[in-house]
Design brief:
The structure holds two protein chains of two kinds.
Chain A lengths: L13 H41 E8 L3 H5 L9 H11 L2 H13 L5 H6 L2 H4 L19 H26 L1 E6 L2 H6 L1 H11 L4 E6 L3 H5 L12 H32 L4 H13 L4 H15 L1 H4 L4 H25 L3 H9 L4 H30 L2 H6 L19 H9 L4 H37 L1
Helix pairs in contact in A: 1-20, 3-7, 4-7, 11-15, 11-17, 13-15, 15-17, 16-17, 17-20, 19-20
Chain B lengths: L8 E12 L2 E12 L3 E5 L6 H8 L9 E9 L2 E2 L7 H7 E4 L10 H11 L5 H14 L3 H4 L12 H13 L5 E5 L7 H14 L4 E5 L3 H7 L2 E11 L4 E12 H6 L4 H7 L5
Parallel strand pairs in B: 3-8, 3-9, 6-7, 7-8
Antiparallel strand pairs in B: 1-2, 1-4, 4-5, 9-10
């Protein structure tokens, strides 16, 4: 070994240089800290602006004062027959027929079915006067229809019906939370001046009622039940289709496929598909599931949309499942093979259980992406104004993001308030899904490590 | 039974050559493995002793690029014959790995894994197999009260004995051990060695080890592998060969080859 000669410059001042190096590090650290700060600020601003819309003062008035309907007596004090009389006096025959569909049947039936089926079949399983059994809906009198309503809805149902359809609560104007907190006086003055007779209520648009009411064209009476159910249906179909196919593809790619040029091309393409804009999947879904396969999917149905969503999340599920399968230590595979397991036995008994936490997490995260997707749903034709719950895969449907999208572009500012309330619901669902993913992962981890 | 007509042989390796891709890993190994004896494979890193071991139960088939030439006879049948299914080979010739690798399942499920693969479903039968195997692996007394506990919750030495019990549960005739004690402390190592000595009454054991004292302590026969090099134009090529194979006593007391003597004397390389 030769003695090392000096190679660093002799005049180098290490101490001065050290301070400079440390300073540079601190500068970067400050920059990274700021990045986090900007992210948190953006999140707070988002939540703040949403909640600002949801809660606040509202000027509320009846469209029709209930006392004028009954000659001064409260609705609750009327007898059953008097209630039906109010109903018959104030509601058109056509509207009552619609009520049969929306409140008694509560399913999606075509106009033809509704008008050309005798009551016996149309109302199978429901109550109806014997005299109407063989007649069609257009042939019934107002009295007969209101009787059918009373038989099926009961007194409370009729009261709700009168309140919703005839009395009608109307929100004349609403204010944001910040306005309500800081400009209370001005709000009260406005109400007194512009809306004499209206009540000023402090409240939230997001109530239990809002979650359970069906759609309506008046914001104060609109609810998101149909959209919630639509989203639920969509999720179930999406996961039911995408999970088995995605995991299956991942197993094939990781465990069976050799390292051939073709397989590498397939894998690269799956990765690229994960980045394809969602509207393009929507167009694909429109062409394939809505148009070409309309006999099976029923056209613009929740099934067609669910299949489209399944295509959308499939690449993400495949990639996540592949990563999870790849992360299973090869020592476990060897242990299984070493005991005389076949390839399938090794995959089923060892690889999949060990990869499951990762696969499930990936699937849940992918489906939470699907929940928020709007563009493909618009393209495959989700309805925006739909009063009836989806009852099966071929039902028409709406979904939460569609409602938000539709409501935010309406001119009436109150629609923006209920859109904000819907956003809160959607965010809550997303957060709980993600929390569920975390819990699931921890559970599995604990179980695996004992 | 075997081609040589000697029933003392459990396995006969004939002119075994293994490639990984185009790279030669080990060349021209021929040796018999004596039945119900412990045979140790020793040699420096990269000499191909693990490769030979993993060829015996066709574990190398799991590596797509691996290519095996030559024959390995087990009960007179070439394990690399056309009609032989590696799955069956691995059931008959069990394996214990360098790092303890219990499944992330309960102790019971770890041992029952193999029998379940073979189609044993009856609970009473499985209970029986689990108890027998754990007793054979000298682990029963330590775990019999909590068989539901995860195999990963055991200590390293216990885990390795669990892996041995797991291998025994499918009733192999030969057990291959790839440095089974190298990740363990001296006390656990001792218990594994004692276990091997008790198992050899019923099983043929082949062990790869870097620890020459261990080879001396436990084995009846020792095979010394070493490395051959060739200066290629572009890169140095290295592959393993079998240098000497004899009783353990002969290898350590009076080796025939200078290379063996250098290695066991610590004058290697």
């Amino acid at each position: 070994m030769s003695v090392r000669t000096r190679t660093l410059p002799a005049d180098m001042d290490f101490k001065a240089d050290l301070a400079r190096r440390q300073r540079r590090g601190r500068l970067w650290q400050a920059f990274f800290f700021m990045s986090i700060g900007v992210g948190i600020l953006a999140l707070v601003a988002l939540l703040g602006s949403v909640i600002d819309e949801v809660i606040g003062y509202r000027a509320v008035a009846y469209q029709v004062d209930p006392l004028t309907l009954t000659g001064g007596r409260p609705l609750e004090d009327l007898s059953d027959d008097e209630l039906l009389a109010v109903l018959n006096d104030n509601m058109t025959l056509a509207r009552q027929r619609v009520m049969i569909r929306d409140r008694v049947l509560n399913t999606q039936v075509t106009g033809v079915t509704l008008t050309q089926t005798p009551m016996r079949q149309l109302l199978a399983g429901k109550a109806f006067p014997e005299a109407t059994a063989d007649r069609l809906l257009p042939e019934l009198t107002q009295d007969e229809i209101s009787q059918i309503l009373a038989l099926n809805l009961g007194r409370d149902g009729i009261l709700d019906l009168i309140n919703d359809e005839i009395v009608g609560v109307e929100v004349l104007q609403s204010w944001t939370l910040s306005e309500s907190l800081f400009q209370r006086g001005a709000i009260e003055a406005t109400v007194a001046e512009k809306y004499p007779g209206a009540r000023l209520e402090f409240g939230s648009w997001l109530t239990l009622d809002f979650l359970t009411r069906p759609m309506s064209s008046t914001p104060a009476q609109a609810g998101i039940r149909t959209a919630l159910l639509g989203t639920l249906w969509l999720m179930v179909i999406t996961i039911a289709v995408a999970f088995p196919i995605g995991v299956g593809a991942a197993i094939y790619l990781e465990e069976y496929a050799g390292d051939t040029r073709l397989n590498r091309i397939v894998e690269t393409n799956i990765r690229n598909l994960a980045g394809v804009p969602s509207i393009i999947y929507g167009l694909l879904g429109l062409a394939v599931f809505v148009r070409a396969l309309s006999d099976i999917t029923g056209g613009r149905s929740v099934l067609a949309a669910g299949l489209t969503m399944a295509l959308l999340v499939l690449p993400v599920i495949i990639i996540n499942a592949q990563e999870a399968i790849r992360a299973v230590p090869s020592s476990l595979r060897e242990a299984s093979y070493g005991l005389g397991a076949t390839q399938w036995q090794t995959i089923w008994n060892t690889v999949l259980p060990a990869a499951m936490p990762g696969i499930l997490t990936g699937t849940i995260l992918a489906s939470s992406r699907a929940i928020g997707e709007t563009a493909p749903l618009i393209v495959v034709g989700a309805s925006t104004l739909i009063f009836l719950d989806p009852t099966g895969p071929t039902s028409m449907f709406t979904a939460l993001p569609i409602q938000i999208y539709d409501w935010t572009k309406r001119p009436d500012p109150q629609f923006r308030d209920i859109a904000a309330a819907t956003i809160v619901v959607l965010l809550a669902i997303l957060l709980s899904l993600n929390a569920f993913a975390i819990i699931l992962r921890q559970r599995f981890k604990k179980k695996l490590q004992g | 039974m075997s081609a040589n007509g000697s029933s003392a042989y459990a396995i006969e390796i004939k002119n075994l050559t293994v490639y990984y891709g185009s790279k030669l890993a080990v060349e021209g190994v021929s040796m018999p493995i004596y039945s119900r004896k412990i045979t140790a494979f020793i040699g420096p890193s990269g000499c191909g002793k693990s490769t030979v071991l993993r060829s015996i139960n066709r574990m190398n088939d799991l590596i797509p690029s691996a290519r095996v030439e030559g024959e390995i006879y087990y009960r007179g049948q070439n394990l690399y014959g056309q009609q032989v299914d590696p799955v069956e080979v691995r059931r008959r010739i069990g394996m214990v790995f360098q790092k303890p690798n219990p499944f992330p399942k309960s102790i019971y499920e770890n041992v029952a894994y193999g029998p379940r693969l073979l189609g044993v479903r009856k609970k009473s039968q499985l209970d029986d197999i689990v108890e027998t195997s754990l007793k054979q692996a000298a682990l029963w007394d330590e775990v019999k009260t909590d068989l539901k506990k995860s195999g990963l919750a055991l200590s390293g030495g216990q885990q390795q004995r669990l892996c041995i019990a797991r291998a025994l549960a499918v009733e192999p005739e030969v057990i291959l051990m790839d440095e089974p004690a190298s990740a363990l402390d001296p006390i656990s190592t001792h218990s594994i060695e004692e276990l091997m000595k008790s198992l050899v009454r019923n099983y043929t054991i082949i062990i790869v080890t870097h620890n020459m004292q261990q080879a001396q302590r436990v084995s009846d026969y020792t095979a010394f592998f070493s490395i051959r090099k060739s200066e290629d134009t572009y890169a140095e090529k290295r592959w393993g060969v079998l240098v000497e194979y004899d009783t353990t006593e002969a290898i350590f007391q009076r080796p025939k080859m200078q290379e063996t003597e250098d290695y066991i004397g610590g004058r290697f390389g």
